[in-house]
Amino acid sequence: MTAAPSPVLDRIRIGSAPDSWGVWFPDDPQQVPWQRFLDEVAQSGYQWIELGPYGYLPTDPARLTDETARRGLTVSAGTVFTALHRGSAVWDATWEHVSQVAELTKAMGARHLVVIPEFWRDPTSGERTESDTLNAGQFSDLCSGMERLGRQVRETFGLDIVVHPHADTHIDTEENVTRFLHGTDSALVNLCLDTGHYAYCGGDNVKLIETFGERIGYLHLKQVDPEILADVIANEVPFGPAVKRGVMCEPPSGVPELGPVLAAAQKLGTDIFAIVEQDMYPCPPDQPLPIAQRTRRFLSSCGA
């Protein structure tokens, strides 16, 4: 019996990111040098990349353009970190950080800025730094702050922000993601749906795409190991230590199934980036390349 052909996912733009090479910080001796990341991501068959933490890749646009172009790579997005639930007191510092990243993102020809909310516990040590829930005033500040950010980023740099639901932040579970979407203007704020983080927090990725398709502006592709996740949840393990345990695993060994997620995204009828991010900090320097190559072959088998 002949196997059914894979669907044609011609609206999906597949890429990878420094995260899949164990990169969480601009400079860290445990991380591979940026030149090796660029060499290996191209060797793995990816065309699109993200900037990763600002300062990891060269921040001079001319130099970065030269380094990416000669490897056949193109930047899809930059990433910023925000704590906008803290209100107007953090706006100036937030905008200074966002402007720096957005300027480079624009110079590289990308159109998206991935916005990650502040963690409520330290991602490395796991120490709780604030409450894991927001009161009404903080939630209102979060929503209005993201709208202000979306408006100003678009007016100043011509970029669209996509907010990244993330474990150990206030935008994580289906309930909190839905609340955030209902509390923000779709003309200014949309989502970067990270399949691994949403599954980590108990969400159904396909259901979210089918329910809020017009708000899905970007994808991060990753999977979680359900056995490790069960232990992480049972013992309230913080995200950073959970990553060290291997909670984010190589596809297709975890959840969610990426084929149905990509098929649901294809049905949205718009071109959309789907950037692989496995979360492997820290990892041995020789570990990422073979995983990246196998992951790219797997995604090709899905039609992407």
Short overview:
39% of the residues lie in helices and 15% in strands. By secondary structure, the chain is an alpha/beta fold. Helix 1 links the parallel strand 1 and strand 2.
Summarize the structure in words:
Pfam families: AP_endonuc_2. InterPro entries: IolE/XylAMocC-like, Xyl_isomerase-like_sf, Xyl_isomerase-like_TIM-brl. This is 2-keto-myo-inositol dehydratase. Residues 38-299 form the Xylose isomerase-like TIM barrel domain. It comes from Actinacidiphila oryziradicis. The protein is of the alpha/beta class. It has one domain: Alpha-Beta Barrel (TIM Barrel), CATH 3.20.20.150. It is built from 11 helices and 10 strands. The protein has helices at residues 34-43, 61-69, 91-107, 136-157, 174-182, 195-200, 205-211, 226-234, 239-244, 258-266, 288-301, and strands spanning 12-16, 48-50, 74-82, 112-117, 160-163, 190-194, 216-221, 223-224, 248-249, 272-276. It has an 8-stranded parallel beta barrel with strand order 1-2-3-4-5-6-7-10, surrounded by 5 helices. β1, α1 and β2 form a beta-alpha-beta unit. α3 (91-107) packs parallel to α4 and α7 (205-211) packs parallel to α10 (258-266). It is globular and about 50 Å long. The two termini are 24 Å apart.
